[in-house]
Amino acid sequence: MFSTYFKLIKKDLFAFVFYIVLIILTVILQNISPILWGELIKNIQKGELDNFLILAGIVIASLLFSTIFQNLAYHVGSKSAVKLSQIGKTQAMEAIYNQSYEYHTSKKSGKFSVLLNKISDMIFGIYFEFFADTFSSIVGVVLVTGYLFFTAPKYGISIFIIVLLGVIPFLIAIRINIKARTEADRVKTDYLARVADGLIAFETIKSFGKEKFELKLLGKLLSLLTKNEDRYSVSFRAIDFSSGFGTALIIAVNSILLYLDFKNGALSISQFVIVMGFSFSFSTKLNHLVYGFRNIFKNTFYFKEVANLLSLKPSKYIPSFTKELPKDIGDIKVDNVDFVYSNGIEAVSNVSLSVPKYSKIALVGESGAGKSTLIKLLLRYYLPKSGVINISGVNILDISEEDLRRLIGIVPQDPVMFNDTILFNVTYGVEKENLNKEELLVIAKRACEKAKLSHFIESLPEKYDSIVGERGIKLSGGQRQRLAIARLFVRDPKVIIFDEATSQLDSESEKAIHTALNELTHEKTTLIIAHRLSTIVHCDRIYVMENGKIIEQGKHKELLELNGRYASLWKIQSEGFFVK
Ligand SMILES: Nc1ncnc2c1ncn2[C@@H]1O[C@H](COP(=O)(O)OP(=O)(O)OP(=O)(O)O)[C@@H](O)[C@H]1O
Ligand SMILES: [Mg+2]
């Protein structure tokens, strides 16, 4: 965990070291005043005025420089913390994008955004709560105790023993404190994740009228949070008490020792000033130490979670070597492919099929048969358990990710849009960078024209600048599909996959964009998944899937003659669902 943060800090090592040096200098300057005062008194007693003036000058200089160094340290520290926070956030986002498709299917977006925000808190915590408060107090304690050890060992030893004894209840209180805070933060993250989830799934909540249920659920999490936060704040009393008690004990014991020495005539006034000055300065030091620790431990949960996020290893498949694809893309061959989801569902089993160059192939079958999963294997979102998928004779495991994504375009079953303008969404796949808005508009208009979407866009008050809402919620299902088709026109990939791409269009619109789809798929290798069989009757070959397997294949006519699964599906669809 610490090594993760250290790796990050190494990216601004010079500033960090400079900051630590400044902090140590500040602590030294802040702690020499009792010694200087002691020496001053000695000089007053001796009547040595010259030395007195020099010492007074040193006192003033030490005060001045400790302020200058402290401010410089804070300036350097916060600049470096800001820089490292930015690096950390970029690193976290990069780590997330390097995760597998499977990781994304189970991650909690709400939790992730909380953690992303926490990155800068953690880095500022290391710089200020740890080094400026805790570390500097420890250095101060060590300096003072060390000095007393050599100059007045009795007092040094008494402080050392009391601090050591004081540490025990302090550590116990800290343990309780960490546990309570970690639990509170865990519940808080769950709470925030649930809030985010509720906002995303607002339509489901509304349609079921479950607002009260959701509030109740959030209320339960909140009361759990309150319980843990209460426990957390109670544990602070023990911490505060142990620090207050420690300081009082140091002053009391040292006062008795001073009194005894005084009585025996073994103590000068200057020694008295030094010991008392140091004893009193312990109050601030211990308080700083306690508050520093308190703030550090407050963040234990996030400290660990952010470290986990920053050290996330890439889990998506990256080929160890890549092969160049032939310029002219040929066929797709799926050979004996098996795939099992991590929950044990065998979604694809022993599937072999071939999609010859420029052909149109259809994949049909009941819901849950494994059609979309097969496509995900083709896109390398998941890796087959066994079997091989080749494109133009090259195993897709040997194709670079960039080549693969450029090669295959998909209109997914439920296209998701960015909460941005129509223009942004349509031109998302444009590869050329730095195109200006006019140039992008030309591309978008051409694509939307082909996808039969321009009429609708032109009717909107803001036209191509209209915002589509989260996930594209402001568009109708069919409009979203047409936008996804337009997006593909812009990209113009060599292999095109339609996963129920026109399922939400009415027959008239579907027919209208049919010509466009023909144009889009002209001289392309095309794979179509469709439930509505009438849309795929003209395909070169139709594969019928059931329970992850291919059970029939052939042309439409051949499959009807076979009188099997396909024929019965066709019969049901041509009869209609509602019979008298
Ligand atoms: N991410 C996932 N994790 C675990 N199981 C999954 C996942 N995605 C799909 N499945 C399961 O795999 C099986 C095949 O799903 P798939 O989405 O491939 O079906 P489909 O043929 O595309 O169905 P539909 O026509 O309804 O879209 C189903 O039983 C489904 O529950
Ligand atoms: Mg599907």
Question: What can you tell me about this protein's structure?
Answer:
- By secondary structure, the chain is an alpha/beta fold.
- It has 2 domains: 2-310, ABC transporter transmembrane region fold; 332-575, Rossmann fold (3-Layer(aba) Sandwich).
- 65% of the residues lie in helices and 10% in strands.
- The chain is built from 20 helices and 10 strands.
- The protein has helices spanning 2-9, 13-31, 33-46, 49-97, 101-106, 109-151, 153-200, 202-208, 211-263, 269-298, 300-310, 371-378, 401-407, 422-426, 437-450, 454-459, 477-491, 507-520, 556-562, 565-575, and strands at 332-340, 346-355, 360-365, 386-391, 394-395, 408-411, 495-499, 525-529, 541-546, 549-554.
- Strands 6-7-8-3-9-10 form a 6-stranded mixed sheet, with helices on both faces. Strands 2-1-4-5 form a 4-stranded antiparallel sheet, covered by helices on one side.
- Helix 2 (13-31) packs antiparallel against helix 4 and helix 19 packs across helix 20.
- The radius of gyration is 36 Å and the shape is elongated.
- The chain binds adenosine-5'-triphosphate and magnesium ion.
- The site of magnesium ion has 4 residues, from helix 12.
- Adenosine-5'-triphosphate binds next to helix 12.
